[in-house]
C-alpha cells in the first residue's frame, strides 16, 4: 500500500521492469493459502493451492488465478478484455493495488525471464543472494510486511490518511511539513482493542484471525473463543489470545494462555485470638487449625512446580508446595506460628504433563505456644502478620503471593470453632419430642412449653461449673445433631433448640451485657460474611435484638430467640425482647468463665409470622404471612451465633472462620442406600450463594470507545472525537474478578456425577467467565441453567457479577453403584470472594450410606414437608425452579425406596396427609349431610318440616363459603358433593315412602330427579366423571 502511494505521489518511483517471483508474486500467493487457516470464509478453499504447487503452476493455471482478481481500475474487465473476478473477498472495497496487479499480470501472461523471474529456490523462499538484509530497504520491508494494507477503516497501524492524504518526501518516508505528533494514528480506535474486536471476519484475517487450528490437532475453532466475546472482553483479555505460527507445513494456533502463571494466597481463617490458641494448646501441642490458607498456583505445568504425583507423601508435598513465611510488619519473625501444607488439590488428577491447570495447595496453621500474643509480658492487643508465599518454577521464574492475618489478645468474649469451622464446638443443636425429658427437664407440647424449656435449661446451665458440664454431652456430630423440619414425627410434636457457650477470660473487669444473636439461614449457605445491613441486621436500640436478614428485599436469615416471639401482625420486630440471651460474664483471673445462651429454633412451626418480601422490613405485617417452616428452603439449615459485645465490634466482611465472635453450624445431610437404584443413589441439597456485588463492564462502554471516523470527517472532527474517546477510556475501572465456588470433592468417588442447578443464572455466562479465567475449565453445559462439574480434587465455578439478590442453587450428586454401607462422603462447598481473596463461607454435604430399610420412612416425611413448603413458593420466585427439581428428585427417591410418591400429600407434619385435605373432607361431608337432611325433612308434610327443611338448606348454602375459605374447592368437587347430598336424601325419602308415611315424597323425588339431571349434565360438560370422560 505504501509503495503504491510512492508510485502515485513521489516523482521518480516506478514499478520494476521485471517482477521477482519471491519478492513480488510469492508474498501474494502465500497469503491466499494461509488465509484458509485464519478465515472461516477461506477455510475449505484453495485446498491444493500450496507453496510447492504455486511455484510449479503452468500458464493456464496462473491465468486462471489472475482472472479471479478484481481489476483495481474499477473497469470490471481484465487487461485482455475479459470479465475480472471478485478476489480478494475482504470487507469493504478491498482490491490489490495497481502495482500488485501489474506483477500478477506479468506472472500470468508475461514471458518468464523477460517480464518476471522464476527465482524460486524452495520453501520457504530465502532472500535472493544479492540482497543485504541490513540495508535500509530491507529493514523497511521487515517492519512493514506484517502490517495490514487494506480495509483502512480505520485500520490497525494507521488509517486512510496515510494512504490518501499525507505527502511523502521519498518512498516510505513522510514529508513532515504540516504534520504533528500523533497525526499518523489519530483516527485509530481508542482503545485499540475496541476496533480490533469489532472487525472480525473478513476485515484483516491475517492480523486479526477469525477461525484457527489449535496446535495438537482438531478442527477449526474461533480465535477469540471463551476469551473475548465482546469489545470489553477484548480490552481486558486480549493478551491471552494465541499466536498463529508455522509448524511443519501448516499454520496453527500456539501460546494461547487463558491465565498467566500466578500465585494467589486465599485466607479462610484470617483471625486468631490468644484465648482460642491457648484453648487448643490445652489439648495438645501444636495447636492445629486445618484448611486455614490456600495457595492457588494458576497456569503451571506439573514440571514447572516439580509436581510428580497426584497423591504426594507429606515429604513430597513439602517440596511441591510454595513456602509460606510469616512475619510481622517490622519484618521480624513470628516463631511460634507456622503454615504447613497438608493437601494438594488438582482440577485434573490424572496430571497430564502438558496441561496447565490450577494447583491448589492447602495449609494448616500451627502454633507451638502462645508467646507471640504477648510482648515483654504484656498482651499485644492486636497485630497484623504478613504471609508471603514463594515458589520457584525453574526457567519460568520465581512467583510470590501475599496475605495477612490478625492476632488478637484482648479480654473479650469469644467462641471456639474447633477443627472444622462450619461445625463449631461452642454451638450445639438438638431436638426433643414432646413429653420427653432431657437435662432433668420434661418438655410439653406447645410453643409456650418450648420457650419455658430453653429458659429453664439455660438457667440450670449457667448455675453449673465448667467441669463435667451437660453442654459437653450435647453431640457435636453432624449426623447425631441434625434438626427436624417436620412439626411432628409419628404424631408427636418435635422441638429444635440451639445453645451457645461463650468464653471469657478477664482478670479484673467483667464483660457486661454480653448478648448472643441466633440467626437461621434458610438453607445451607456459602456467603456468611458479616454485614449489619443485610444478613446480620439488628435493632438500633440500647438493648438490641436480631432482626430479619434481607438481601435484595428477600429474607435470607431468620432470628430465633430465647424469649417468646411477639405478634408480628400487631408489633414491629424492634419491640421484640430477648432478655434470656443477655448476660454479664464475671472475671475469673487466668481461668475461663463460661456463659450459656440459647434459643428455640422454631423452624418447623406453622404459625404465620413473616411475608416473603417484608415491607416495611421490620413490620408489623397483616397480609401474605408465611410460617417460618414455609420460608425454609432446604432440609438442613445454617445456624450462626453472634456474640455481641459493644466494646468488641465485628468488622464488616468477617466470617465465622475469621472471627471468634461468630460461630456456625453449617451442614447438610443427604443419605444414600446400598444396594439401590439410580434414584436412591442420587443425593441432593439446596443452598444459597451470596450475591457478588461488583459490576462487570458493559458493552455500552465498549461501543462508546470504538471511535471510527468516516470519510467525511475533517481533521478537527477526528481529533475532537479521539480526545473524547481518551476521556472515556480513562473512566474505565477494571473490576475485581468474579467470586468463585470452590467445591472440594474430598473422599467423594471420582466416578460420581455432580451437577449444579441455578435457575436464576445463565450457564453460558458462567462458562464465558470460566473460559476467560481458567486454563482448565472443568465445567460442561447440561441445559441453560445447569452445569456439570467434571471430577477432580476440586472444581471451581465462577459466579456472575453485578447482582443484589442471592442465587438459589441445587447441588445434585449421582453416586456410583460401588458404594457400601457405613461409608460417609463429605464434599465441601466454599465461596471465595474476587477481591480480597478470602473464603466468605462454606458448608459440608455429608452423605452416609445406609440400609434402604432405614431410609424409606424419613424420605416419605421429607417429601411431604417439602411439598408443603413448595406450595407456599410463588411461581415467579427464584426458588420455585430449584424446589420443583428438588422435590422431583425426592419423589423419585421415594419411589426407589418402594413407596408410592403420588399418594403422599403436602403436610407440615410430614405424615403425607394434607391438613387442608382433612379440613376440606370434613366440611365436604358437612355440606353433603346438610343437603341430605334438607331433602329428607322436605319429604314430610307439615309446617315444621317446611321451616326446618328451609333452615337446613340455608345452612348448607352458608357452609359453602366456609368450606371454600378453609381449602381449595373446585367446581367438580362442589358438584359431586351436591349430587351426593341430594342423591342420598332422595334415596332416604324413597325408602320412607315405601315403609312409612312421606306425603310429599313424589314431589320431592320429582324435584330431586330434575336437579340431579341438571347437575349430571353439568358434570359431563365439566368433565367431572372419569368413567364418562377421562380428561382431567
From TrEMBL:
<keyword id="KW-0472">Membrane</keyword>
<feature type="region of interest" description="Disordered">
    <location>
        <begin position="68"/>
        <end position="87"/>
    </location>
</feature>
<feature type="domain" description="L-lysine epsilon oxidase C-terminal">
    <location>
        <begin position="91"/>
        <end position="208"/>
    </location>
</feature>
<dbReference type="InterPro" id="IPR041173">
    <property type="entry name" value="LodA_C"/>
</dbReference>
<keyword id="KW-1133">Transmembrane helix</keyword>
<feature type="transmembrane region" description="Helical">
    <location>
        <begin position="972"/>
        <end position="995"/>
    </location>
</feature>
<feature type="compositionally biased region" description="Low complexity">
    <location>
        <begin position="71"/>
        <end position="81"/>
    </location>
</feature>
<protein>
    <recommendedName>
        <fullName>L-lysine epsilon oxidase C-terminal domain-containing protein</fullName>
    </recommendedName>
</protein>
<keyword id="KW-0812">Transmembrane</keyword>
<dbReference type="Pfam" id="PF18417">
    <property type="entry name" value="LodA_C"/>
</dbReference>
<feature type="transmembrane region" description="Helical">
    <location>
        <begin position="927"/>
        <end position="960"/>
    </location>
</feature>
<feature type="transmembrane region" description="Helical">
    <location>
        <begin position="1001"/>
        <end position="1020"/>
    </location>
</feature>
